[in-house]
Design a protein that fits this description.
Blueprint: E1 4-12, E2 18-27, E3 32-36, H1 43-51, E4 58-63, E5 66-67, E6 78-81, H2 93-103, H3 108-122, H4 137-150, E7 155-159, H5 167-184, E8 188-192, H6 195-201, E9 204-209, E10 212-217, H7 219-224, H8 229-234, E11 241-248, E12 254-258, E13 264-267, H9 269-275, E14 282-287, E15 292-294, E16 304-316, E17 321-327, E18 330-336, E19 347-353, E20 358-361
Parallel strand pairs: 3-8, 3-9, 6-7, 7-8
Antiparallel strand pairs: 1-2, 1-4, 4-5, 9-10, 11-12, 11-14, 12-13, 14-20, 15-19, 16-17, 16-19, 17-18
The structure holds adenosine-5'-diphosphate.
Length: about 375
């Protein structure tokens, strides 16, 4: 297994579109890194530059110690798994899996050995003599992964491999790919627009937006300390509440006033200090939906603040309820345990856990404080 390093990698397409701006990422040998971001953020282009399927406009890609900018894809010793599986329809599963090895003149016995091993890992032994059209979507995806495994690549690249599967199968394949990663100890780079896949699979995630890296970190760190308002809004569902406004007053008597006017949240000195906030400038306050409680009951400890809002919509999920409310012209999303809730249009009392507030600079969106 090899490390994969991107050093200020840039991609400019014909017509001057900068798809990737000077992206630097170091993926350790054996690490599972997920590139995640909305459609068009440059994640596939980044992956395709690692694979050699796209030329690199500037910067350097290294696999292990070797700079591969000018190395053709077949000589990079990596295997890629695509969303559409890209299996050869006229070949059986066995032939699909053996194809790349035959091209490399790997001896017959060695091909058989690797195939048996991969088929056992993926539980596809019974499928080896079928053609792809006689396989379900999940089985095709397994075969595509099997074809990558037999090559014993220095790194695996996955481009949205689960997007064509139904929700249930996606969850299952997610677990299988994670297991595969542990079992093989392989370097894996995985592209997805799905933040749940990113959060559940990655050792680290790279959040991209408009061709740039916004944050790199362990999933829990990115969730708990988003680097900016984009990451705060993108990772987590429902997304973090983000309220734009000003901090007025000073010291003990400071209050956050949302720009729209109505929402006011008093902030005492310890909270201000923790958030790195001072009076004056425009800021964005953030609070995850789970930091908002339905009703008066305060949190076990620490600072909290109750507000009167109107319930706009309630989405019961079974194990929890998402509440969409508004107060003073601001939208508020809360995530609460199952319980009786008021009807849409009715007043609702919400309690904010001020110890879980985040703060960002309004002009740049960059996180303030720790
Ligand atoms: P993602 O994988 O995050 O959806 P892509 O890497 O596919 O994003 O695309 C990043 C940007 O580059 C987009 O603006 C897209 O329109 C543009 N782009 C992608 N491929 C090409 C291409 N072959 N020619 C020109 N522009 C492209």
């Amino acid at each position: 297994m090899a490390s994969v390093t991107l050093d200020r990698v840039r991609k400019v397409y014909d017509g001057g579109i900068i798809a990737v701006h000077d992206v630097s990422i170091e993926v350790g040998a054996g690490e599972f890194v997920v590139l995640v971001g909305p459609s068009g953020c440059g994640k596939s282009t980044t992956l395709r530059m690692i694979a050699g399927l796209e030329s690199i406009t500037a910067g350097e890609v290294r696999i292990g110690d070797r700079v591969v900018n000018a190395v053709p894809p077949k000589d990079r010793d990596i295997a890629m798994v695509f969303q559409n599986y890209a299996l050869y329809p006229h070949m059986t599963v066995r032939e699909n899996m053996a194809f790349a090895l035959k091209l490399r003149n790997v001896p017959r016995a060695e091909i058989d050995r690797r195939m048996r091993e991969a088929a056992a890992i993926l539980a596809i032994e019974e499928l080896l003599d079928r053609k792809p059209r006689h396989l379900s979507g999940g089985q095709r995806q397994r075969v595509a992964v099997g074809r990558a495994i037999v090559r014993q690549p220095r790194a695996f690249l996955f481009d949205e491999p689960l997007s064509n599967l139904d929700a249930r199968l996606r969850v299952q394949m997610r677990k299988e790919i994670s297991r595969l990663h542990r079992q093989l100890g392989a370097t894996m780079i995985y592209v997805t627009h799905d933040q749940v896949e990113a959060m559940t699979m990655g050792d680290r995630i790279v959040v991209m937006h408009e061709g740039r890296v916004r944050q790199i970190g362990a999933p829990a760190d990115v969730y708990e300390r988003p680097a900016d308002t984009f990451v705060a809004g993108f990772i987590g569902s429902p997304p973090m509440n983000l309220w734009r406004g000003h901090v007025r007053g000073d010291g003990g008597a400071s209050v956050f006033e949302a720009r729209a006017g109505g929402l006011r949240i008093p902030l005492d000195a310890p909270v201000l200090q923790r958030l790195g906030l001072a009076s004056g400038g425009e800021v964005v306050l953030g609070l995850r939906p789970e930091g908002i409680h339905l009703g008066e009951a305060p949190f076990a400890s620490g600072a909290c603040f109750g507000i009167d809002a109107r319930l706009d919509e309630a989405e019961p999920m079974g194990n929890e309820i998402f509440l969409y409310a508004s107060a003073g012209g601001q939208e508020i999303v809360a995530r609460v345990p199952p319980q009786p809730v008021p009807r849409p249009g009715d007043p609702v009392r919400l309690t904010l856990d001020l110890d879980r507030l985040h703060a960002f600079e309004a002009a740049t969106g960059v996180r303030l404080g720790p």
